[in-house]
Amino acid sequence: MSIYGPLFVTLIGAALLAGAETKVKLSDAPPAVQTTVKTETGNAKVVGLTREVENGKTVYELETIENGLVRDLIIAADGAVLIVEQQITLAALPAGAKSAIEKQAAGARINKVEKVTEGNKVFYEAAIKRFLRTSEIKVDADGVVVK
Known about the structure:
Radius of gyration: 18 Å
Number of domains: 2
Largest sheet: 8 strands, antiparallel
Shape: elongated
Number of helices: 3
CATH class of the largest domain: Alpha Beta
Helix content: 10-25%
Strand content: 35-45%
Structural class: alpha+beta
């Protein structure tokens, strides 16, 4: 066996421990996840479904696109929707969130804006590109920075 064999095994093991995403077919997901996917997609195009382990729990990430906007859902193995990240336009932001994001992005380009729903918490994320560096800001509807 070459020296690359153990190195390859080590790298694969590290990736698995880090919670690497694995593409899955809908038919290979648990029935509860399949039901949630079918319920949540509506007219959207399914871009992909992946499985990963986060904090010791298996979750599924569903990526869809509709009318040019991406929507990601994190789904528990029991079918519960844990997180929804819905791409929105800057104009669709609440006034406080829009103002805070535009202030932070002054002189830069806002690449992407998302409404994130996590349980009963809702906040807004924006990817801001300044020169060659991209940063992210998270704010609530009033424009208060979310940690």
